Amino acid sequence: MRRTWLVLGAVVLASVALAADKPQYGDWGLDIAGMDKATKPGDDFFRFANGAWLDRMQIPPDKSAVMLRLEMTDRTEARLREMLEGLAAKAPHRPSDLEGKIGAFYKAFMDEERIESFGAKPIAPELNAVRTAKTHDELAALMGKSNANFYGSLFFINLDADLKDPKRYSVYLGQWGLGLPGRDYYLKPDFSRQKEAYQTYIAQLLHLTGWPDAEARAKDVVDFETKIAEASWTKSQQRDPVAFFNPMSVTELETFAPGFAWKDFLAAADLASVTSVIAMEKSAFPKFAAIYAAAPIETIKAWQTAHIADNAAPYLSKAFTDASFTLHEKTLAGQAQPRARWKRGITAVAGGDFHVGRSFGTFGTLGFGVGELYSAKYFGPDARAKIEALGRNLRAAYAARLKKLRWMGPATRAEAIKKLESYSIKVGYPDYKRDYSKLAITDDDVVADARNAAAADWAFNTGRLNGPVDMLDWTMTPQTNDAYNGSLQDIVFPAGVLQAPMFDPYAEPAINYGAIGAIIGHELTHGFDDWGRKIDADGALRNWWTKEDATKFDERAKLLVAQYSEFRPLADDPTVRVNGELSLGENMADLGGLTLALDAYHASLHGKPAPVIDGLTGDQRVFLGWAQVWRGKVTRDFVKRQVVSDSHAPRQFRVNGVVRNIDAWYTAFDVKPGDKLYVAPKDRVRIW
Questions:
Q1: d(CA 369, CA 433)
Q2: Predicted TM-score (pTM) above 0.90
Q3: 467 CB neighbour count, 10 Å cutoff
C-alpha cells in the first residue's frame, strides 16, 4: 500500500531517485530497531537513539568509520560507478566531449598494469625541476605551481571575494606546508607515534623517487616541518576573519617577510600582474620565510620531492599507493584496508578526499562535469524546488526568532534580519555548466589527466580574477555529501547530501525537519556564529553589532565553549578532549539549527496537534531525526585526529551536546535532575 505523509508545511516532497515509494529507514523514516530503549534519554540521548545499531555494527576494514552518512556516500558511489564504467567502456583514446573525457580519465586510472609499469616516471617533470633548481628562489617559484600541479608549498593561494569589497576577487595567501593533519602532530608527545610513522613515510617516498640518503633527508624534512608547525597559527586562531584579513601590497609583503621570493611565487601561479594580496596568518609569514631562507637547499629539495610524491601517490604504482595508505588511512585514521580501486577511481575523476594529507575536492578532477551528469539523472528540478521551499520555511522560522530575541537590541536585530534575507539558497546543482572543451584527457596517462585537470581548474579561477564576483558560483560539486555556508552569501545543498537519513521524501515530516531542516538551520546560523557575525548583509567584513549585543553574544559563546571543552570522546583516555574553541562555530550552528527546525515544524502544523506515531510525539520525532543523522562510530585514531584538526565535534556530542541546551527536549523525554545530561535551566546555553 502506498504510504503518504503530511506535507512539510506547504511543501510537497518529490522522489529523489529512490527505488521504492517507502522510507529508507523504518516504516516512517526512523529506524526504531536501531534504538537502545534501555538507555535513559537523559543519560545518553545519542545511545538511546542509536545504541542497538552501534552495538551490532562493525567498522569495515576499508573505512575508518561506519555511519549512516557513509551509507549515503556508498549509494552515490554505486551510482557513479555505474555511470563511469559505462562511459569508460565506450571512451575513445583522446575524447572531445564531456562524457568521453570522464570515461577516458576513469579508464586511465583503472589501468593498474600500465600504471605499475611506470613507477615514478609520470612525475619526472616535477622531480627533475626540483633536482635542477639551484636557488631558494627557484624552489619558491615551483611552490607557486601548487594549485595547478603536484608541487607542495609553504603558502596556499586562494581566490575569493574580498572581505572589504565583496563584489571583486582578491588573492588570499595562507600558511601551509605540513604533511601531517595539523601542528599538534608535530608538537605534542601524544602524536609521537604518528610523527615517527610520517618520517618513515617520507623516507619511503624519497627512496621511491631515487633520492640519495633518504633516511637522513627524511629526518631533515620532518625537522623542517616541525619548525613550520611551531610558527603556524593554531586552528582556533584561524577562525577569526578580522585577524586574518590583512591586505598588503606585494612590495610590502617582500619587506614584511623577507627571505621568500614572493614575486617569483606569484608569477609561477599566473598571478604576475597582482599587486596586492591578503596575508591571512600574517604574523606567521616572516617566521615561515626566515625558516625557509635558513634551511639548506638540499632540505628544501627533499621536502618538495616528498610532497610531490605524496600528492601524486594516488595516481602512481602500488609501491606509492601502499605507502600512502599505511600513513594516511591506517596510521592517522585507523583504517585497516585500502578502498577498492574503483572507489579510488571515482575520487580521482569525480572529486573527494584521497587522504587526510590533501583534500582534493575538485582539484585535478572533472568534478563539476561528473556532477552535471549525476544531477541530471538523480536530482531533477522538482526535487530542487521542494528543498528550496523548505529552506524558505526555515528562514522564516529564523526571522521570527530574531524578532523575539530578548538579548539582542533593535539596531543589531535589524541588521541581522537584513543579512538573513540576503542569503541565496542553492540546491542540487549549479545554474551553469563548467566548460571542459579545452581540457585534454587521454585514456592511458592518468597522471597527465590529473595534472591537466588541475591546470584547467586553476585557469578557470585566475581567468576571472579581474572580473566581478560570480554570485552563481559553487565550490562543492553536486555529488558531494555535504553542505556549506559560503562567502557569496549563499547556502549550498548539493544533490549528494539530499538523501536519507538527511532527507527522505517518504519520511514523515518531523523526521525530515529534525534532519535536513536542522541542517538548513545549521547553515543559516553559520552566518551569525563567532565567524559569520563579523560579515554583514553585503558579504563585507564589518562590525554591525552594538558593543552591548556583542558582549552578550560572546558571553553565551563562552558558555558553549566551556560545555564542549569538558567532553571526553574516549572513555579510557581522559587526555583526549574536544576543543571547544575550535568547534565553537559548528556547535553553535548545530544548536541553532535544531532549535529552528523545531520552530519550523511547529509552524507547519498550523495550530493543529502533532500526530503521535508508534507512541512518539512530534517533538520526540524531531529530536530523534537529528540523532539518527549522526548515527555512526569511528576508530580511535579518527577521534584523535578529529579533535585537533576538525572544527566539528565528534558525533555523539553533536547530539548530546545540543539537546541538553534545548528546553523542549527536557519536556519531550521527561529529563530530570540527576540524569547525566541534565543542565539546570539557568546554565543552558541560549543563543538563537
A1: 8
A2: yes
A3: 9
